[in-house]
Amino acid sequence: MAATRRSARISAQSTPKLEPTTQIAPKTNGRKRKAPPAKDKAEAPSTPPRKRAQGNPTTPAAALPPLTPTPSAAGLFAETGSSIMKPRSATVTRLANPKLTNAPLLSPETLRLVASRDIETVSPSKAPQIRTTTENLLQEACDYLIKVDGRMKPLIENHHCRVFSPEGLAEEIDPFESLSSGIISQQVSGAAAKSIKTKFIALFEEQPESRFPHPSQVAAKSIEELRTAGLSQRKAEYIKGLAEKFANGELSARMLHDASDEEVMEKLIAVRGLGKWSVEMFACFGLKRMDVFSLGDLGVQRGMAAFVGRDVAKLKSKGGKWKYMSEQDMIELSDKFAPYRSLFMWYMWRVEETDISTME
């Protein structure tokens, strides 16, 4: 079972301890005391004091449910193949497949582009058979989601998913840089991750235009040298190990482009420093694969619970872990949206921002 990730920390305020008070009887001087003036509101009738229970008399405030926005780290897996922003070239319409990689990948070592075929290169005799391209992939997926469940319609109308749009599918991705960025970002703030990455790139002075280093360059560095960029011992080992796998050909842009979803997951989870959630986010946001679904993401779980009409504000924490929906329920619901579960997952992060009650 995948470990549930929190999208934000829960902060619970402690209730101040009440100090016992001692009532002092007023002194009397034999005179009659005047009755106190009448109050605007009638006081509740007094009741005999109860015997105070042992222990803390106050009840701690219930912890609020955690916030669950789209994981900010997911964006790091979709970083383009160069650290320097360049003008975008004209969008090229290519063949698309919801079960394969739809992003054009840069070979980390040679910067050679690995992508599906441009439809202009397809034989005219086969052109009429082409149905799914990078131009219409998102529209086909949205139509399918609405066909499966009409409650998806207001979500789709209110939120444009750029990830799988023609513009998003035109962005070139360096898989080594994307995965390394994901490792750098683990357990640090976004600002800290950017600072470390900048220092990391600066270690390789031979790189022109501050481009992310090639795997062979990183593999040649010692752990001690990599740590001078601000990496922990463990992260330096992870990135060096990842670089070695790309340098020796065990991982490649071609493999990540052509392999099945199952093969991609198996290969990348075997890399130290890459857990299941990280690989799922890379497959979805980096490789632009359309049929990825993360059971271990708390934001997806919460969104799905709200989607089916559960009051997520009333769900309680059990044993320190938030549980909005069982994994079996998540599987049964998400399977209906295959082979476009990545898009369904993206919308589940936004379901609480949209009123879908009118579609029920």
Automatic annotation (TrEMBL):
<dbReference type="GO" id="GO:0005634">
    <property type="term" value="C:nucleus"/>
</dbReference>
<dbReference type="GO" id="GO:0043916">
    <property type="term" value="F:DNA-7-methylguanine glycosylase activity"/>
</dbReference>
<feature type="compositionally biased region" description="Polar residues">
    <location>
        <begin position="10"/>
        <end position="26"/>
    </location>
</feature>
<dbReference type="GO" id="GO:0032993">
    <property type="term" value="C:protein-DNA complex"/>
</dbReference>
<dbReference type="InterPro" id="IPR051912">
    <property type="entry name" value="Alkylbase_DNA_Glycosylase/TA"/>
</dbReference>
<feature type="region of interest" description="Disordered">
    <location>
        <begin position="1"/>
        <end position="75"/>
    </location>
</feature>
<keyword id="KW-0227">DNA damage</keyword>
<protein>
    <recommendedName>
        <fullName>HhH-GPD domain-containing protein</fullName>
    </recommendedName>
</protein>
<dbReference type="GO" id="GO:0006307">
    <property type="term" value="P:DNA alkylation repair"/>
</dbReference>
<dbReference type="GO" id="GO:0032131">
    <property type="term" value="F:alkylated DNA binding"/>
</dbReference>
<comment type="similarity">
    <text>Belongs to the alkylbase DNA glycosidase AlkA family.</text>
</comment>
<feature type="domain" description="HhH-GPD">
    <location>
        <begin position="184"/>
        <end position="336"/>
    </location>
</feature>
<dbReference type="InterPro" id="IPR011257">
    <property type="entry name" value="DNA_glycosylase"/>
</dbReference>
<dbReference type="GO" id="GO:0008725">
    <property type="term" value="F:DNA-3-methyladenine glycosylase activity"/>
</dbReference>
<dbReference type="InterPro" id="IPR003265">
    <property type="entry name" value="HhH-GPD_domain"/>
</dbReference>
<dbReference type="GO" id="GO:0006285">
    <property type="term" value="P:base-excision repair, AP site formation"/>
</dbReference>
<keyword id="KW-0234">DNA repair</keyword>
<dbReference type="Pfam" id="PF00730">
    <property type="entry name" value="HhH-GPD"/>
</dbReference>
<feature type="compositionally biased region" description="Low complexity">
    <location>
        <begin position="57"/>
        <end position="74"/>
    </location>
</feature>
